[in-house]
Design brief:
Elements: E1 7-11, H1 16-27, E2 31-36, H2 39-46, E3 51-54, H3 60-74, E4 79-82, H4 97-119, E5 126-131, H5 144-161, E6 168-173, E7 177-178, H6 182-187, E8 197-198, H7 200-213, H8 222-230, H9 237-254
Parallel strand pairs: 1-2, 1-4, 2-3, 4-5, 5-6, 7-8
Length: 257
């Protein structure tokens, strides 16, 4: 796919993978709208170079407004990149319906709802790229709530592929751990980063190549690809889970949890 002139919307564009990808697509000649929760962060990162929209994707009314504004500015949407999401790290803690609902609304319900909004009674082609995470296919201690959201999103995407219309292409992305503030926000500056690690610029490059080549999925880590193959016949995750459990227990002791 030639990205020049393509009308692209990216959520979670003010930091991390979303920001790095937005910069790459702008350089490639795409017309990009960046979406984030903070007007100041969007202004600081893009400085008026592109149109930006403030939107908390956990709120369907804000999603409706965001999509309408993006379509008005761009004259339509060719590629939507659903990248907004966050994690909690630590034990699940005390009952907290609002906290649990918020992460599911952001990580699961929002991408599904956006896809419904963009594809209902639509006949024009659409590419829907969604950042799922490697933890959508593997379990680690400390990330039980986050993993559950990503397992749910991965299950939806795999099921939707069986029923989607021909004019819609879905590209899930499975990064593992990128060098961003993502894990620090999840559990503090000492949150253990799952292995393998990769630079955010590399993940953004993989996603751009996924769009250009029309790949069915994007797996930035070759090690993770090998793991996904081996796990079908061997219990390879047990060693990883044992290691991460040691790191998780050490984190809990430091935080008195």
């Amino acid at each position: 796919m030639d990205l020049r002139g393509k009308r692209v919307v990216i959520t979670g564009a003010s930091s991390g993978i979303g920001l790095a990808l937005a910069k790459r697509l702008i350089k490639a000649g795409a017309r990009v709208v960046g979406v984030g929760r903070s007007a100041d962060a969007l202004r600081q990162k893009f400085g008026g170079r592109i149109h930006t929209i403030v939107c908390d994707v956990s709120d369907p009314a804000q999603i409706d407004t965001m999509i309408a504004e993006a379509e008005s500015v761009l004259g339509g949407i060719d590629i939507f990149i659903s990248n907004a999401g966050f994690a909690y790290y630590g034990p699940i803690g005390a009952p907290d319906w609002q906290k649990d609902s918020y992460i599911f609304a952001t990580n699961v319900t929002a991408p599904i709802y956006i896809l419904q909004k963009l594809t209902y009674q639509r006949f024009a082609p659409l590419v829907f790229m969604v950042t799922i995470s490697g933890l959508g296919k593997m379990l680690l201690p400390g990330f039980s709530i986050y993993c559950s959201t990503k397992f749910a999103l991965d299950g939806f995407i795999r099921g939707y592929r069986l029923e989607k219309p021909r004019n819609v292409k879905v590209i899930p992305v499975y990064p593992v751990a990128t060098f961003t503030e993502f894990f620090h926000r999840a559990g503090g500056s000492d949150t253990p980063m799952p292995f393998p690690w990769h630079p955010v610029s590399y993940v953004a490059w993989c996603m751009e190549m996924g769009l250009r080549l029309g790949l069915p999925s994007v797996y930035p880590s070759p090690i993770y690809i090998i793991r996904c193959i081996l796990v079908r016949v061997l219990p390879v995750d047990l060693l990883v889970q044992a290691l991460e459990l040691l790191r998780f227990n050490a984190w809990r002791r430091r935080h008195d949890q």
